[in-house]
Amino acid sequence: MPGTPDLVVETTGLRKAFRTRRGRKVVAVDGLDLAVPAGGVHGFLGPNGSGKTTTIRMLLGLARPSTGSMALFGEPVPRRLPQVMGRVGAVVEQPKFVPAFTGRKNLTLLAHAVGVPTKAVDTALAQVGLTGRERERYKGYSLGMKQRLAIAATLLKAPDLLILDEPTNGLDPAGIRDIRTMIRELGESGVTVLLSSHILAEVQQVCHSVSIIGNGRLLASGAVDDLVGEQQVRQVRVGVADPGAAQRALQGTRWRVTRDRDRLVVEGAERPEDITRALAGHEIYVRELTPVRADLESVFLQLTRDTSLHRSGPVDRRADDADDTVEGGAA
Amino acid sequence: MRLLRVEVSRFFSRRAVVLLVLGAALLTGLLAGSRIWDTRPVSATDLAEARAQVAEQLAQPGFQRELRTCRDDPATFFGPGATAADCDANLVPTPANYLNRATLDLAEERRGNGTALVVLVAALMVIVGTTYAGGDWHTGSISNQLLFEPRRTRVWATKAAVALVGCGVVAAVLLAAFWTALALVARSRGIPTEPEAVTQILWESGRGVALAAAGGLGGFALTMLLRHTVGTLALLFAYAAGGEALLALLPVDGSARFSPTYNVFAWIRDGVRVYDQSLACTPSQGPTCDQRLTITLLDGATYLGVLLLVTLVVSALLFRRRDVP
User: Fold this and answer.
1) Cβ–Cβ of B144/A100 closer than 8 Å?
2) Which residue of B has its CA nearest to A115?
3) Residue B135 is nearest to which of A85, A98, A115, comparing CB atoms?
4) Among A20, A271, B49, B78, which one is least packed by beta carbons within 10 Å?
5) What b/e sequence results for B97-124 when a residue is b if at least 16 CB atoms lie within 10 Å of its CB, and e otherwise?
6) Nearest chain A Cα to B1, which residue?
7) Is the peptide bond before A47 cis (omega within 30 degrees of 0)?
């Protein structure tokens, strides 16, 4: 598939199915259409077992798709992966280095494999704050240090596309802030960052655009503000003296009205003033009218609610909801 | 070339590999040392001790009684025509009887300890190749490597080349050190070595180096296939031990031809002649029935070569196709 030139990552009808050791068929990714434009930070969201890591692994050539096509920088992969891999840095799941080697030795071996000079190793280590600890053995590193080393490895190639799968796992609050700042800066410097995370607040803080997947399918994609904005106009919190009476008064409307302690939450009203008018018609007067400020979490939960209800069946979406690990070979 | 340098560095940086190579060097040194010690020239002290033991033996009344009996009737001891001199020659002890000291004969060493050393080094190189590949899978660093060099065939081939050459070089150094040490000691003791023996040692060592290199490569390839060091070693053990047991049960004539052990020895020793119980003897053959089977160098090479080739092809193909965790 010749990819679209202005898309850095593109998948069409991507599917990955395999059998577990017990012979059960699992569809990890099911016809995924993903498009990541160049530049900025793009969030890749989905519940555990939704196929995020499998998708990333297929993009990077670590797993073979069953069907569908993929492209990086417009080049079809995995066929043209060797040509584009020099522009891609990636951390997939946990950092994976040789425990007996020092952090520096691990990076130096990777750097030399692609002709990156040793000087770049020191620069990358400094970027992630590992200077001074680089001569310690990797097995002695804390989880946060391991994560930093993995990010340093991605920076060795000065990538145009950075794929980060849960990059702040195991980091302390200061480390999380540092990495977020680094991701934001990289995104602003022209590097495209594909950030897979389940920390929705993190994604909302850092990402410009987002793709949400569930059960291996794309559920929504677009700018974070647009997705959140769509949700924002639909819910209004209403404060009245008698919430019960107000709920009864609004029963005849096409809005969805729910009680939230001593307030009502009205969903589906085009404009908040429509609610005021409707209640005033029943001589109920509003003393508080607050549009519910939707965040990415509520969008995410709304979108993934339905898909999570349909997980079991003769063909499982995931063998294990706890992770995205691919088992066995291509189906 | 870049990748090759990186893999060489990775190979010799792996602690398990370094420990195994050091272990192989230590065992080689111990074997050479023990042979040099066991064949050391007789010292004046050794000779004095031996003479004292001879004197002690001669002084024993029982011995003197037996010697007298023999001298009185040598034929009873050594058959018709025997003389009293035969009794002295055969019964009277000499210091040499108590020294029990062999001479350092390189031709003899080749037949015994030389072969043992080749087997030992080759076995250790199989483990080296296995642990070299197994480490990548155990730590998961193979996926990291593929993120930098996604051409899997190239990655596999580079690692295979390093396993082959690395194990070959280590084996060559160890075998050369062993034979050089023995040859120098033999020369210093004034023991001549036939040129033919030297040629045989060179050929056998060459085949030993090839076996160790192929063993390292085979161990590597099998581990890349199974993705597990212990799994590979268990399979190899099961094949070596279970294979022999299975062959013994097979109702096939000449089943020893497929024995891994015999084929390895056939390769090292330029062919072997082995007893094969599966060779049927007809009653008409009677005692003339020969149940020995010759496995030539070519047989051994073919057997081991086919095994290695199949392992390499399957390993490389599946590494290209399968998902990497």
Assistant:
1) no
2) B2
3) A98
4) A271
5) ebeeeeebbbeebbeebbbebbbbbbbb
6) A113
7) no
Residue A173 above 90 pLDDT?
A: no
Global confidence as pTM: 0.81
* Degrees to nearest 5, angle at CA A277 with A276 and A280: 85
Phi and psi at residue B274, in whole multiples of 5°? -125, 155
| Residue A223 near residue A207 (C-beta atoms within 8 A) | no
Q: Coil, strand, or helix at residue A310?
A: coil
Element (H, E) at A126: helix A118-127
- Note whether B48 and B112 are within 8 A (CB): no
Cα(A113)–Cα(A330) distance, integer angstroms: 28
Least confident span in A56-60, A182-186, A258-262, A297-301:
A297-301
For residue B6, list chain A residues with Cβ-Cβ distance below 8 A.
109, 112-113
Chain A residue numbers touching B9 (CB-CB < 8 A): 109, 112
**Closest C-alpha among A1, A19, A23, A96 to residue A57:** A96
Structure confidence by residue, pLDDT tens digits, A245-264: 999 999 888 888 988 888 99
Contact B274, B292 (CB under 8 A): yes
Name chain B contacts of A66, Cβ cutoff 8 Å.
Answer: none
Does the distance separating the beta carbons of B325 and A325 come in below 8 Å? yes
Among B1, B148, B324, pick the best mutation site for testing chain A contact (most A Cβ within 10 A): B148
Separation between Cα atoms, residue B8 and residue A33, nearest integer Å: 42
What CA–CA distance (Å, rounded) separates A30 from A307? 13
For the record, the structure tokens of A142 come out as 């804390």
CB spacing of B147 vs A90 below 8 angstroms:
yes
**Which of A99, A115, A329 comes nearest B2 by C-beta?**
A115
- Token reading at A187: 């995104």
Q: Which residue of A19, A21, A79, A101 to mutate against B (max B Cβ within 10 Å)?
A: A101
What dihedral angle (degrees, nearest 10) is formed by the CA atoms of A186, A93, A98, B122? -140
Task: Using CA atoms of B305, B310, B316, B319 in order, give the dihedral in degrees to the nearest 10.
Answer: -140
Strands (E), chain A: 7-19, 25-37, 40-45, 67-72, 75-77, 88-91, 161-165, 192-196, 209-214, 217-223, 235-239, 256-260, 263-267, 288-291
- CB contacts of A92 in chain B (<8 Å) are 143, 147
Instruction: Kindly state whether A157 is in contact with chain B, defined as any CB-CB distance less than 8 angstroms.
Output: yes
Question: Among candidates B236, B242, B238, B229, which has minimal Cα distance to B215?
Answer: B236
Nearest to A110 among B5, B14, B144 (CB): B144
Residues with Cβ within 8 Å of B167's Cβ and at least 6 positions away in sequence, in order, are: B125, B128, B129, B212, B213, B215, B216, B217
ipTM above 0.85, yes or no: no
Report which DSSP code applies to B129. H
Q: Residue A288's beta-bridge partner residues?
A: A239
A226: its two tokens: 């647009």
Residue of A26, A96, A326 to mutate when probing chain B, most B C-beta within 10 A: A96
A328, B323: Cβ pair inside 8 Å? yes
For A286, phi and psi rounded to 5 degrees? Answer: -80, 135
A287 Cα to chain B: minimum distance (Å): 58
